[in-house]
Design a protein that fits this description.
This protein has 387 residues and is of the alpha+beta class. It has 2 domains: 4-80 and 349-372, 3-Layer(aba) Sandwich (Glutaredoxin); 88-338, Glutathione S-transferase Yfyf (Class Pi), Chain A, domain 2. Helices cover 56% and strands 7% of the residues. The strands form 2 sheets. It has a 4-stranded mixed beta sheet with strand order 2-1-3-4, sandwiched between helices. Helix 5 runs antiparallel to helix 7. It binds glutathione (GSH). Glutathione (GSH) is lined by residues 12-15, 51-54, 66-68, 373, 376.
């Protein structure tokens, strides 16, 4: 059988996560970096509704998107070397950390890349020389336009201002300290081999924080054990890495401060975002840990993330429920997870993630996407549905 095809950008957050996962699982795949005006526009967009990577084409010709449901899907099809524990407590908290790391470290990762001139110049040039190399203009101009776009959307447009900047950076620095304490004791988050939580943190820690000039220098000096873990996870293969997770029904020491961040910052953010979505707003203000973020974009995808976490909570088996509930309470995470109940995202009403529904794309739509892309937090574009 021919292998899977994984489409990535070699500098991208979620691409690094998916690449490490497929490597760890030894799932045969070809890796392709699409061009913006080539395969991304003409192949990936019509088949997934997204101008985004990572996406996967299966040997049967299906298209998959979104690293979180993709990993669930691959775990079903390739159960050897499972990364999601069968123990219900460990499974729930691994999923919670994956989601937290995916979404809450995104802002600091993008801030460090696009706010610091050394990083912004290096990375924009790299974009211009790789997946944007076919743009019909001088590379320096492509790079300059890209720096402007990325800063506008992902830094200024994501609430990073002189007032919030120190908090955004503290999210990174505190995370380094928490992970350093864990990796001084054990090789992976849940013990002797990688779990879903490792792959969640890997998204930001690999392609952004350990490789972009400014956060990399910080990691090398402040958290060398994290720097080492990045390479260790990248080099791990399930049939070679022989360690064990901590005993069922337990979590390793060192998870509490991270779970506390989840309860104090991330879950209240997910709730505020969901409420703003229900009210039909485009932006909302959010106060956390003594700082107020103004005009944060409402992200439909993260309304869905919250629904998904609530579903996982509902699915925790009765035998483990008390223990999971107690740990969530201890971290201040139970109340914000459940506050105001379920708020519907309506994100996947017409598809079942990670499977994508192909759609015909008109020429005008293509031209628009070529110039603009799909908005980073927009819903999957669908036939007949404007964004
Ligand atoms: N939740 C998705 C997010 C994918 C995503 O945001 N991809 C980024 C790169 S890491 C992208 O392609 N962005 C395109 C753009 O900025 O226009 C996942 O986990 O795969």
């Amino acid at each position: 059988m021919s292998p899977y095809t994984l489409y990535v950008f070699h500098i991208s957050y979620f691409s690094g996560k998916m690449q490490a996962y497929l490597r760890y699982k030894d799932i045969p795949h070809d890796t392709i970096e699409p061009k913006w005006g080539g395969e991304l526009l003409n192949l990936i967009y019509p088949n997934t509704g997204l101008m985004k990577v990572p996406v996967v084409r299966t040997p049967e010709g299906q298209w998959l998107a979104d690293s979180t449901p993709m990993i669930d899907w691959f775990e079903q099809r390739h159960p050897q070397g499972a990364v999601i524990p069968s123990d219900p407590l460990q499974a729930f908290f691994s999923r919670l950390l994956e989601d937290y790391a995916d979404e809450w470290l995104w802002r600091p990762a993008l801030h460090y890349r696009w706010s610091y001139p050394a990083d912004a110049h290096a990375l924009s040039r790299r974009f211009a020389e790789t997946f944007l190399s076919e743009q019909p203009m001088p590379k320096a101009m492509t790079a300059a336009m890209l720096r402007e776009r990325q800063h506008r959307i992902y830094v200024a447009g994501d609430g990073v201002t002189p007032q919030t900047r120190a908090h955004v950076e503290a999210v990174y620095l505190n995370t380094l300290d928490r992970l350093q304490a864990i990796f001084e004791r054990q090789p992976f988050l849940l013990g002797g081999r990688p779990s879903l939580a490792d792959f969640g943190f890997f998204a930001s820690m690999f392609r952004h924080f350990s490789l972009d000039p400014t956060p990399s220098q910080i990691m090398q000096t402040r958290a060398p054990a994290v720097f080492e873990w990045v390479a260790r996870l990248w080099n791990s293969r399930h049939h070679i890495t022989t360690g064990e997770w901590v005993p069922p029904g337990t979590l390793p020491p060192g998870w509490e401060p991270i779970l506390h961040d989840v309860g104090e910052a991330y879950l209240p953010y997910l709730h505020a975002n969901a409420v703003a979505w229900r009210e039909g707003r485009k932006t909302f203000d959010f106060s956390v840990q003594g700082v107020t973020y103004r005009k944060l974009p409402v992200v439909q995808y993260r309304v869905w993330c919250r629904e998904r976490l609530q579903d996982h909570w509902q699915a925790v088996l009765a035998a483990a429920r008390g223990a999971v509930e107690q740990r969530l309470r201890d971290a201040g995470a139970l109340e914000p997870l459940l506050r105001d109940g379920r708020i519907a995202s309506h994100l996947h009403e017409r598809d079942t993630p990670p499977l994508c529904a192909p759609r015909p794309v008109a020429l005008g739509d293509k031209l628009y996407r070529y110039l603009i892309g799909t908005h980073w937090h927009g819903p999957r574009a669908r036939a007949g549905a404007g964004e």
